[in-house]
Amino acid sequence: MPINCEFNLSRAAAIYYNGEQISGSLTVTVDGKKSFKLEGVSVTLHGVSTVHWRESLRGPPEIEHNDSTGNLECPKVDYNGSKVHINETKKLNEVLQLENGTFRLGDFNFQLPENLPATCRLPFGNVEYVLKVVLERRGTHNKCFQQRLVIRKCVELADLKPQYMETANMGLTLPRSVFVPGQSVSYEICSKDGVQDFLTRLCKKISYTSQQPSAKTKNVTQVLSESSELNGNLRLPLTAPIMSHSDQLDPIQISYYIETFNSLNAPIKVPIFVATVAPPVNSQTESSQLCFVNMALSQSELLGPINQFLANSCSREIDALALSKHCERERIKLLKGPKRKKSYVHLALQYFYKKVLT
């Protein structure tokens, strides 16, 4: 019997900040001739961080015999870790008898803690939050639906003091230490020995910590921007995730720093802070530029359909089939119609990116 559940959240998009309240209601639609009996309805707010990567085991090489038929592969080990940040369940209804039509199941609300990590998707780990509804039935499997949530961490830092670090041969100055995604990081290099050949890089460092089969940390450093000028700007991407709190022992830790070096001297590293709010500053070396906290979680999602975050759209049943290629072609055909709504702009950008830029 076809049945669908709709999440009616109190805001247009399912995007929240730490400390806010998630509230809304549930509506179920039954399409069939027979009645639909429920033993109960529950809704759960679940948030978890997970990490996973694979490494080759170091050991003596295996000896291939003359009668061996397969290719020898170096044995590998999987490192995994997880941490549940929130898992709250609320019961909405007891026994219900649903007929054909649309019915309101009830209201719900959840309070988000202040110390939740932000939603992110990374190469070796994720932080995800979902609302999950379970329609309990007797004698058969339960119906489960879920709504993806995006939790943003509000980090406001007002300390805009200049950052300075030096060695015997060079010095690195930053007019400020707090930035938001999309801003330019201005810097100035002072050479004390006359050497002018410097390379300055803006780096992001992500630390993944596993629990099984043993506790281990994998550090991944990515160069976001670089420059060979003595006075320059390094662009912080719009999709840069917000930094992690160093005092929280989460499986995923994110930090940023500026480093400068040359072939003769060891690098200088100056940490910077990527937050959601960074007040503007008047400086001769830094121009005021607009920026914002981007709602996409990765570079690919910048060109994705925006309605994936809409709160009042119908949810998909867990384990349901994805859209077929035919459905994808139908969505592209909408661009050729006389009416062009706002959501079609995202489809056009996605189509242009796939067909022209790649």
TrEMBL record:
GO molecular function: ubiquitin protein ligase binding
GO cellular component terms attached to this protein's record: cytoplasm
Coiled-coil stretches noted in the UniProt entry, renumbered to this chain: none
Residues annotated as domain Arrestin-like N-terminal: 5-153
GO aspect biological process, one term: protein transport
Database matches in Gene3D superfamilies: 2.60.40.640
PANTHER family, A to Z: ARRESTIN C-TERMINAL-LIKE DOMAIN-CONTAINING PROTEIN-RELATED (PTHR11188:SF167), ARRESTIN DOMAIN CONTAINING PROTEIN (PTHR11188)
Listed SUPFAM superfamilies: E set domains
Any one Pfam family match given in the protein's UniProt record, by short name: Arrestin_N
Family designation: Belongs to the arrestin family.
Protein's organism: Drosophila melanogaster (Fruit fly)
Record-given protein name: Arrestin-like N-terminal domain-containing protein
Tree of life domain: Eukaryota
InterPro entries in the record: Arrestin-like_C (IPR014752), Arrestin-like_N (IPR011021), Arrestin_domain-protein (IPR050357), Ig_E-set (IPR014756)
